[in-house]
Amino acid sequence: MPQNDVVAQLGLDEYKYGFRDEVEYKFKSRKGLDEEIVRQVSEQKGEPEWMLKTRLKALKHALARPWPKWGGDLSGLNFDDIYFYIRPSDGVGRTWDEVPETIKNTFERLGIPDQERRILAGVGAQYESEVVYHSLKEEWEKQGVIFKGMDDGLRDHEDIVREYFGTVVPYRDNLFAAVNTAVWSGGSFVYVPAGVKLDMPLQAYFRINAESMGQFERTLIIVEEGAEVQYIEGCTAPSYARESFHSGVIEIIVKEGARSRYTTIQNWSHNVYNLVTQRATVARDASHEWIDGNLGSKLTMKYPSVYLMGEGARGEILSIAYAGNGQHQDAGGKAIHMAPHTSSRIVSKSISRGSGRSSYRGLLRVDPGAKHARSNVECDALLLDEEARTDTYPYIEVEEADASIGHEATVSKIGDEQLFYLMSRGLSEDEAATMVVRGFIEPIAKELPLEYAVELNRLIELEMEGSVG
Amino acid sequence: MAEPLVKIVDLHAEVAEDGTEILRGVNLEVKEGEIHAIMGPNGSGKSTLAKVISGHPAYEVTEGDVLFRGESILDMEPDDRARAGIFLAFQYPVEIPGVSIANFLRTSLNSHRDEDIDIFDFQDLLISKMEMLGMDPAFAERSVNDGFSGGEKKRNEILQLAMLEPTLAVMDETDSGLDIDALKIVSAGINQVKQEHQNDMSVLLITHYQRMLNYITPDFVHVMLAGRVVRSGGPELALALEEKGYEWAKELSLA
């Protein structure tokens, strides 16, 4: 069945979160990245001297470091065209009434305060460079849980931040980790004391509003022994002709016997470069899960990682990517086994359509001494038409002979037989294609919180309108 | 009943991709409530006929017509034909991983209705149909045809038949790949559904072998060869074929 390009385009134009606000900013840096900008960011924040020094070291590294030649096409990203810091308001609201009206309305349109009341333990909301709202329900505060914007975290808990900052993702790790470390602003600071189990998720919401904006949030999550936490992040931006840039760094420390799960639903508009470093260290008998949904952006390069450092540590990375026309999702995961009896599972599913391209890029490493490691990697790609493209780049390095490793990769197309089968039961062609796609992502969608699963289904439906025909 | 439910007139069809002609002038009439069996050797075009009736995009009709309740359906999409009351039980049912049979059936059923069926009413209906067919309700939670045995796939087709209640059920080699026990179960299922609907459902049974007709008694039997119906008769025709083979039918068609 031939692709109907005109109708297909319509589906993509319906990006629901593309609205923009007129906001008077408190401070806006000039475009570009240099020492003056970094010093301005630091000064705006009134932070400790050691943090400024860290920033400057990272900046030096970032400016000297060559750009990656692998992954996606970064030629459209020019640091000289990006605002690296924009402060939308003063201070962090503890209630929504303390948040400037326009910005509050934006988050209301995104449904955040409503979700907060119903299903969340705490919410953080970041607008441009700064966190504008942060709250944690009292019952968790009483148990010693800390959930703040990263800037407040640094101010109020400097000793903890200093102990962990940059230990999981050092600025030398990659170019974008260096850029983030130099100009980081916002993000979340989470500390869960030993034995405390949050049974409702924490959520952070990231919104870029300005054109040519760079957002560099920094999140640090420490889960003490035997504690449990679930953290969800959502991202959207208006659609502009010019590119914006999002480059977060997320560091998670999961201590002995603790459990954590970090879920991202990234739905940036299609002019955003999304280059994120997410990594968790997992101690003995602890577990960490990354659930990663990449639906929006122009280019995403993102490989959530688990470093399984203690005996019996477990890691899971479940990801789903949708690459529509003009989008490239270069995503996957890394599992590094550094101790005996560690186990990991990576499941990656991608859907590509039209000129969209999805790549799975993954690393599975078993270090010497990590005896009896077990790992299973499964990547499945679904192509919606003849033009769509997918690639797989699995890297496997195993230094222990007794490791049990499974790797499976499949590429499938929505077949005419599948469509005909469903249509012969009365489903329209769009309904049929949507049903096949939903079934394909079901193993991951079922891991999402209900609200997000519904949202994901709605997005897929929107994207699938007229996608075959 | 003046007008037959289905009237196939001098139907010619070819493989859309390469123009190979498969159907070369099929004529057939099915009245309301009748059971017709179409028999024929491999390559005679009997499965192609089933697919063309349902609107499979791999085939192109070059001549003739298919009338359903007196109206041509050739310009209708497969989903429109389904909603009009035509059902095709597939010879090779397709796997839809990650989609439960219950979800699939509910979506299908809703596509046939003006208003979506209430979720509890749907559950009741599904369970009653599964009971009628002697199926375990847990079956409905499995992904559509994913990892099913041949028998399970065919039973799933019968369940869909029972749920969608078409006016014309085209059963494309439903007996193929089944052992004798599975064949009995599946045939009993078709009989159950047919009995429920009597004159509101007509059945077109496409089969290579006579054995299914031991369980489902057709009103008429047609023999297809090289893209045409060469002979029509009652159930006794199937028995004669079983005894004498398709070579006999070929000789008849040449005579």
Overview in brief:
The complex is a heterodimer of chains A (469) and B (255). Helix content of chain A is 26%, strand content 35%. Chain A is built from 12 helices and 24 strands.
What does this structure look like?
Chain A has helices spanning 5-13, 35-45, 49-64, 101-109, 112-119, 138-142, 150-156, 158-164, 175-183, 416-423, 429-445, 450-464, and strands at 27-28, 86-87, 122-127, 130-136, 146-149, 188-192, 202-207, 214-215, 218-223, 228-236, 244-246, 249-254, 259-266, 272-282, 287-294, 299-302, 305-308, 314-323, 328-337, 343-352, 357-366, 374-383, 389-398, 404-413. With 469 residues, chain A is of the alpha/beta class. Chain A has one domain (5-464). In chain A, strand 3 (122-127) and strand 4 (130-136) form a beta hairpin. The N and C termini of chain A lie close together (6 Å). In chain A, 57% of the residues are buried. The model of chain A is unreliable at 1-13 (pLDDT under 50). With 255 residues, chain B is α/β, with parallel strands linked by helices. Chain B has one domain (6-46, 55-254): Rossmann fold. Chain B is built from eight helices and twelve strands. The longest helix of chain B is centred in the last third of the chain and has 18 residues, at 180-197. The two termini of chain B are 34 Å apart. The A-B interface holds A 1, 415-418, 420-429, 431-432, 435-436, 438-443 and B 54-58, 77-79, 81-83, 87-88, 90, 93-94, 96-99, 104, 107-108, 111-112, 143-144, 160, 164.
Secondary structure elements and their pairing?
The complex is a heterodimer of chains A (469) and B (255).
Chain A: H1 5-13, E1 27-28, H2 35-45, H3 49-64, E2 86-87, H4 101-109, H5 112-119, E3 122-127, E4 130-136, H6 138-142, E5 146-149, H7 150-156, H8 158-164, H9 175-183, E6 188-192, E7 202-207, E8 214-215, E9 218-223, E10 228-236, E11 244-246, E12 249-254, E13 259-266, E14 272-282, E15 287-294, E16 299-302, E17 305-308, E18 314-323, E19 328-337, E20 343-352, E21 357-366, E22 374-383, E23 389-398, E24 404-413, H10 416-423, H11 429-445, H12 450-464
Parallel strand pairs in A: 3-7, 6-9, 7-10, 8-11, 9-12, 10-13, 11-14, 12-14, 13-15, 14-16, 14-17, 15-18, 16-19, 17-19, 18-20, 19-21, 20-22, 21-23, 22-24
Antiparallel strand pairs in A: 1-2, 3-4, 5-6
Chain B: E1 6-15, E2 21-30, E3 35-39, H1 46-54, E4 59-68, E5 71-72, H2 78-84, E6 86-89, E7 96-100, H3 101-111, H4 119-132, E8 143-144, H5 150-164, E9 168-172, H6 180-197, E10 202-207, E11 220-225, E12 228-233, H7 235-244, H8 246-254
Parallel strand pairs in B: 3-10, 3-11, 6-9, 9-10
Antiparallel strand pairs in B: 1-2, 1-4, 4-5, 7-8, 11-12
Helix pairs in contact in B: 3-5, 5-6
